[in-house]
Amino acid sequence: MKRKIELYGRLRDAGFGAAVSVDVPQNATARQALSVLKSAFGEKASLLQGCALATGEEVLAAGDTLPSGRLALLPPVCGG
Amino acid sequence: MSFVTAARLDPAALCRAVSSPKHGALASFVGTVRSVHAGRRVKAVSYDCFVPLAEKELARIKAAAEKRWPARVAVAHRTGRLKVGEASVAIAAGSGHRAEAFEACRFVIEEIKRRVPVWKKEHYLKGDGRWLAGCALHRRRP
Fold first, then answer.
1. Looking at this predicted complex, what is its ipTM?
2. Domain with B15 in it
3. Number of domains, chain B
4. Domain of B93: which CATH number?
């Protein structure tokens, strides 16, 4: 199934815009989705190092099933 | 209440929000855009943010600080492109005594740097720019 993944920080400059749409298996885990994203990023896959998937509520662990709703791919953070 | 804003921060308003006649201490921290970083002359910094999660994490950090210390805490984080000298983050803590006010402020800024989904891109005088490195996020559940 198609899922839209929002991109933030350094990922915004990867050439995909503010989001990517990827095909993930039904009930896919965050780990599986990250693997699909690595393929989608191709030669820019190194940008995904240290990235995590998150909802508007929480960061997902690798084994978490992707919930419905907003999904974002978040690079290491540096607020403040 | 919103913790993330594209509007100019008002640290004095945060101080007023946490002050009380019962308090003998009011500490604040304001993070600002610096003009030089790692030897490069900076003209501005862009702050990107995943707002819904940032709002949740800032609320959690405020609650954790108020649980750990007998203090009232307020915090706000800016988004968008900021010039040198503009405030990017503001924190205020009011408490009975100075130790807990200082400690609560320190706690909040360190937690922001570790877990709030915000990213900085520095814009240099020479015209180029760079996203800064940061801390990888991990799931946090009780």
1. 0.96
2. 4-131
3. 1
4. 3.90.1170.40
Does B115 reside within a domain? yes
How far apart are the CA of A22 and the nearest CA of chain B, in angstroms? 20
Tell me how far CA of residue A12 lies from CA of B28, B90, B108, B119, B126, in angstroms: 33, 26, 27, 11, 21
Distance in Å, alpha carbon of A51 to nearest chain B alpha carbon: 7
User: Does residue B32 surpass a pLDDT of 80?
Assistant: yes
Q: Which two tokens stand for residue A44?
A: 């820019």
State pTM to two decimals: 0.96
Residues 46-65 on A with a CB inside 8 Å of B are 50-52, 54-61, 64
- Give the pLDDT band of residue B139 (cuts 50, 70, 90): confident
Candidate from A12, A61, A77 with C-beta closest to B117: A77
Q: Provide the CATH number for the domain formed by A2-74 in this structure.
A: 3.10.20.30
User: Is the Cβ pair B48, A60 closer than 8 Å?
Assistant: no
Residue B137 located in a structural domain? no
The minimum CA-CA distance between B64 and chain A, rounded to whole Å, is 16
Spatial neighbors of B63 by CB under 8 A, at least 6 apart, are none
Q: Cβ distance B82 to B45 under 8 Å?
A: yes
